[in-house]
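Reopening this one. Same input as before:
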Amino acid sequence: MNFELTETHHMIRDTARSFARERIAPDSIERDETETFPHAIVKEMGELGFMGMMVPEEWGGAGLDTVSYVLAMEEISKVDASCGVIMSVNNSLVCYGLNKYGTEDQKQRYLRDLASGKKLGAFALSEPEAGSDASKQRTTADRDGECYVLNGTKNWITNGSTADLIVVMAMTDKSKGVKGISTFIVEKETPGFTVGKKERKLGIRSSDTVSLQFQDCRIPAANRIMQEGEGFKFAMSTLEGGRIGIAAQALGIAQASLEASIEYSKQRKAFERPIAELQAIQFKIADMATNIEAARMLILKSAMLKDQDQPYGHIAAMAKLLTSKVAVDAALEAIQIHGGYGYVREYLVERYLRDAKITEIYEGTSEIQRIVISRALLK
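Same output, byte for byte:
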């Protein structure tokens, strides 16, 4: 097995790292405190090709592989996980789904602008009573001539208030259960579509998370993705790739925690020497680094399998399950190493913990990942 990155991979990683340090980092603390969406930064990420990395160039994307996406996601998330999740949703859930399952007309009308960063997308699956059990959709889409009429509520929608279009799952035939769910593209200006209150969150505070309401929204039939009843298949397929993106986000947070711990331990003195010379600190850093490297290998494996068009779903679930835990653990250890300073906002490690926790929850909780993995192994 070849563990070497290509020249292109190195270039992508270095570009993302420089951009994150020079453009994202300076205002990241202020955006976190004020819960301000990074509009200008998202636009620049689009111009650099980071918002449609795996979309072919003919549709406005960068035409890169999943490994490149993982490398960029880690570097962006290492500096600001909020920017990371905005990037992840647009890449993994919106652009990927449209590119794989959308019609030529849908790609022409929507994918090009999404992949180039001119527009932003959101993915609406979760509902007040359909979280981990996504099959319990209550949002409905009733056929009326050449349109569908949408009614219902979605919640926990990342990019929900800032997106130009939303990919929405809705029930077209309740009698068929999961086989009665379909997928639609809803433009922001559609009459009857409204955005609910912005959630105040523990972490990833500069990304917007909102509820969405649909009241007699008339959606052209041409905006349905795939056939009626294939919406659940669409959602599960896109979420498989999305788990790789969230795993890479968690990896970035974990790596940031490790780097902050190493730097601080070399500077901070106790008992008349740097705490980096204390075995207790050395062991913490050794364990953090080992777990992070193991998680990185699992993420890269899932990305390579996806690029090779091989089954990767349960490996992606493993990557997200492991890396999200590694991120939370690394952030906790970073706070412990920093002592009292780790608990205050003057240092970044308290934010790493706040940002890390959500990676164990969204795009499938850790419990759901275990279900996915066990089903794949026991079938």
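So the earlier flakiness isn't reproducible anymore. For the record, The first strand starts at residue 121 and ends at 124.
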